[in-house]
Amino acid sequence: AADPSEGQDLVEVLEFLFGAKIAPTDAFALAKAFVEAGVKSRAALDALTPERAKELTPAALRRKVVSALKRLPQQQQQRQQQAKRKQRQSQDEEAADGLLAKRARMSPLAPEPPPPADGEAPPASVRANRSPVMILWAAAVAQALGYDWSEALSLASAVASLFADAKGSRLGITSTVRPPLPPEALRDASRPALLGEQVPAVRTADGWRGLEPRVAGGYQEVHPLYVHRRLEGAFAGSAYAHVRASMDSLARAV
Length: 254
Known about the structure:
- Residues 70-96, 106-125 are annotated as: Disordered.
- The structure is a single chain.
- By secondary structure, this protein is mainly alpha-helical.
- The chain has ten helices and five strands; from the N terminus they run H-H-H-H-H-H-H-H-E-E-E-E-E-H-H.
- It has a three-stranded antiparallel β-sheet with strand order 3-4-5, covered by helices on one side. A two-stranded antiparallel ribbon has the order 1-2.
- Residues 1-6 have low confidence and may be disordered.
- A hairpin with a 2-residue loop joins strand 3 and strand 4 (207-213).
């Protein structure tokens, strides 16, 4: 009976010989000689010296085989880099899936920040990064347009992500190329518009939810509670309530 491992041995060697641009007829004959000489694995090919390769190879093919041998270390390095990329991608996907699972256990809604206490003076100054300011303003505008607070937070984060991508592209830091929207987002013609942009979003049982690109590709829904906690951290103490109240008044006035 034929040894099943011999077929795999032949595949390893043929892959190398075809990569050396040797014609199929010559490659099969030479592969048989390699396998019979014990050169029948990737490790054996990596260890094969040019001198030994010349002994096994007809004169007309030696130049191609030796050139291919010299390329093996670079190809090995490329395979290792590709394996590392796949491993990182897998880890990114696992992390993203874990985050999605965590979000699924959260309440689907976010609490509205309470209004400032009666008689409480607003802080003299508030320092915050550009992103949370943009998100809070977009959320105030969305709520003024009739979306509930959880919808507003989710949509605001998604539209802020669009603006951040555009700014990064202008500065040459990032690319504005985004993955295609999921079919359910494309089918809904009533997708929200906010701050002059069509927001990547889907309609869920809990209302509209903005979409942001995942690290590992595709999109994920923006959980409003996550955005709420981010804003709480960005606007410390009573600043969140005061800034939100000011933006709310401005959004309803324009």
